[in-house]
Amino acid sequence: MATVSLTPQVVFSTESGGALSSATILRFPPNFVRQLSTKARRNCSNIGVAQIVAAAWSDCPAGRPKSGGGGGRARGVASSHAAAASAAAAASAAAEVSAIPNAKVAQPSAVVQAERNLLGSDASLAVHAGERLGRRIATDAITTPVVNTSAYWFNNSQELIDFKEGRHASFEYGRYGNPTTEALEKKMSALEKAESTVFVASGMYAAVAMLSALVPAGGHIVTTTDCYRKTRIYMENELPKRGVSMTVIRPADMDALQNALDNNNVSLFFTETPTNPFLRCIDVELVANMCHSKGALLCIDSTFASPINQKALTLGADLVIHSATKYIAGHNDVIGGCVSGRDELVSKVRIYHHVVGGVLNPNAAYLILRGMKTLHLRVQCQNNTALRMAQFLEEHPKIARVYYPGLPSHPEHHIAKTQMTGFGGVVSFEVAGDFDGTRRFIDSVKIPYHAPSFGGCESIIDQPAIMSYWDSKEQRDIYGIKDNLIRFSIGVEDFEDLKNDLVQALEKV
């Protein structure tokens, strides 16, 4: 009889040729049934083992089988013990659930409260939230498994009906949810102090889904001049097709905001803080009070801040959006986005998302989960280096102006100090030179990558006049994008190395 080893814990035997047969005997270590409880077997990411176990489960005795028996003997023993195996698996799963708070049976509020009692800081939440307590997948693994599936099965019609009527917690189709993504959403909700979070395929889609779900046809929105250009393009070109009108104000112009609220039936004020690329800061508490007094919602794009530096929901915002591609994931290797806030609002975004698509791949969800475990460490490092870099650049004779909320010279420094715990890792500045001189500077740096995006471990630098606005000189003039403007996203490299690199590049200006 040939013996084939699958893993150090699972061995199966065959009678000839090493091929699997219906008489396959699987040897389980003492804790194997517990490890492969019902939900774990359903969602096991190791497809090879999962298929073998699922195929042979009903043919396998509950305990360790005796070795040396033939195929017929194994089939007979398995048949006589099938009920015992099922009972043992069910009992083991029930015992595991009773020992660990599990979202499948525990009330979400109980899990959230237990998590809050245990995890008191952003550092602990970044590592454990959504995974240490209330994880839907029953597994002994420290990390959350990647569940690669497009659909989910039900034991019978009654279980499906229970699911439809809210008595059975599961999923139905990959577009409507995934256990890996769910863990990520719980982690983000914990960090942002949100009731609910929905993760989607990109930050841009998060903004589109939010606007589509919450701004009615014929509605009116307010936004700011300083923002991500593609967001502005969507609002200018696509929203009017639904009859949605828009007022654009400068970030610090509260009189203009009040005038827009007084003279329009405003559905939503959507703004970044800090903004892109000038890092202007909006007084979230003040603006929330202004909007709510007129029945308008406030959505903050907090991508430049991250939840480590700013929690806009606690200041009165209704919703927070992130491009998770940036600080949240933090490694320049995955694209994603999310919307967090009150459940009644996020649920509307989620319903729209379920219909339209834009699903975050579970492998991307895993990468973002992994990146978030070091979010607090990365952001603290980037905060410190960026502040030192901004101070250095402000004193350099070849720098005309520096934009950074941590500098007293920043027009909203007083606001940033009150609502942020750190000022972020992006420093924008204007080189004391023309378009060509600025190009020479960009082309002379050796450490930062010349690329779009920001917030990752690697430093990135770009000249917005080329990177983002090359196709529109008119818009550069309207929104103050000068030829000598630089946006510098600082990674986690050593400050002295980055400083010395910039010094040598500035000599080329």
TrEMBL record:
It comes from the Eukaryota. One of its GO terms (biological process) is methionine biosynthetic process. Its EC number is 2.5.1.160. The keyword Cell membrane does not apply. Pathway: Amino-acid biosynthesis; L-methionine biosynthesis via de novo pathway; L-cystathionine from O-succinyl-L-homoserine: step 1/1. InterPro entries: CGS1/2, Cys/Met-Metab_PyrdxlP-dep_enz, Cys_met_metab_PP, PyrdxlP-dep_Trfase, PyrdxlP-dep_Trfase_major, PyrdxlP-dep_Trfase_small. This is plant cystathionine gamma-synthase.
